[in-house]
Write a structure and sequence with these properties.
The protein has 274 residues and is mainly alpha-helical. 75% of the residues lie in helices and 0% in strands. Helix 3 crosses helix 14, helix 4 runs parallel beside helix 7 and helix 11 packs antiparallel against helix 14.
C-alpha cells in the first residue's frame, strides 16, 4: 500500500512539475496563433481560428533568418571547440600526474562560482584589444571559455568511471597517446561528450548578455537579441511578437526533448565510479 501510494505521489508530482514547466510555452504558442484583437480581449481564451500571419510578419519585420544562421554557426562551432578542449583537459587531469594538476581543478572550480556579470568588463576589454568586437569569432571564443568548467567536470566524472586497464592494454599494443584517446577513450565517453555538447549548445543558443555587449550589427547578433532589438517594431503587433518568441525558444526545447535520454545517460554515467 505504501509503495503504491509513493508511486502515485511521484507520478502526480512529476505531472505537476511538467505542467508548470510547459504552461508558459504553451500559452505563448497559443497567443502566437491569435489575432491582436483576440489577444487584447481574451488573453487566456483559446483562439477561434488558427492565424499564422504572426509568423510571416515576424520573419518579415525582423531579420530572424540572419540571426538564426548566426546562432547556429556560433553555437555549433563553440560547442565543437568546447567539447574538444574540455575532453582533452579532463582526460589529462584524470589519467596523468603532473605539476599543476590540482591548480587546474581549483581554477575550474573557482570559475563555476564567479558570477557571469562580473566578467563582462574584463572580457569586453580583451575583445576590444584583440580587435574582435562585433564579430562571430568573439562570441565563439567567449562562449567556449565561459562554459568550459561545466563541460570539464561533466567529462572528468565520466573519465573516472573508465578502467585504466583499457589504456594500458592499448599502450602495450603500441598505441600512442593520441591513438589511445581517439580510438579507445573517445568512443567509450561519447555519451558524456554528447551531454556536455548539448548543454553547451543550449547555453550558447539562449545567452543574451554577452551577445548584447559584444555585438552591434545584424551580421553578428544571435536570436535572443532579436526580441530585444525589435520590441519597438512589435509594439502594436502582439501576434508577431509571440510568434518571434516561439521561433527563438522552440529549437532549444526541441533539441533537449530529442536528446534528453542522452543527456540523462551522460550525467548519471559519471556519477558512480567503478
Amino acid at each position: 500500500m505504501n509503495e503504491r501510494l509513493f508511486k502515485y505521489t511521484g507520478v502526480a508530482y512529476a505531472t505537476l512539475i511538467g505542467l508548470v514547466s510547459l504552461a508558459p510555452f504553451l500559452w505563448v504558442l497559443m497567443l502566437s496563433l491569435k489575432t491582436n484583437a483576440e489577444i487584447i480581449n481574451s488573453p487566456l481564451g483559446l483562439p477561434t481560428t488558427l492565424d499564422f500571419s504572426g509568423y510571416v510578419n515576424a520573419l518579415r519585420i525582423a531579420p530572424l533568418g540572419q540571426y538564426l544562421f548566426n546562432s547556429v554557426l556560433i553555437a555549433g562551432l563553440s560547442t565543437a571547440v568546447n567539447v574538444l578542449v574540455a575532453s582533452m583537459a579532463a582526460y589529462a587531469t584524470t589519467r596523468f600526474s603532473f605539476r599543476g594538476r590540482q591548480v587546474v581543478d581549483l581554477a575550474m572550480s573557482i570559475s563555476l562560482l564567479l558570477p557571469v556579470t562580473a566578467l563582462i568588463m574584463p572580457i569586453y576589454s580583451i575583445v576590444r584589444g584583440l580587435g574582435l568586437y562585433d564579430s562571430k569569432l568573439a562570441l565563439i571564443l567567449v562562449y567556449t571559455a565561459l562554459d568550459l568548467p561545466m563541460s570539464y567536470f561533466i567529462l572528468k566524472g565520466f573519465y573516472m568511471t573508465i578502467p585504466k586497464e583499457l589504456e594500458e592494454a592499448a599502450f602495450i599494443d603500441g598505441a600512442g597517446f593520441l591513438q589511445c584517446f581517439t580510438r579507445v577513450i573517445a568512443p567509450i565517453t561519447r555519451p558524456g561528450m554528447i551531454t556536455a555538447g548539448i548543454l553547451h549548445f543550449i547555453f550558447c543558443w539562449n545567452e543574451f548578455l554577452y551577445a548584447l555587449t559584444l555585438t552591434t550589427s545584424h551580421s553578428s547578433r544571435t536570436v535572443p537579441l532579436a526580441l530585444n532589438y525589435f520590441t519597438s517594431q512589435f509594439a502594436f503587433d502582439y501576434t508577431a511578437l509571440f510568434a518571434a518568441v516561439v521561433i527563438v525558444v522552440a529549437p532549444s526545447i526541441l533539441i533537449f526533448v530529442v536528446f534528453q535520454e542522452k543527456i540523462i545517460e551522460g550525467l548519471t554515467a559519471g556519477s558512480v565510479k567503478g
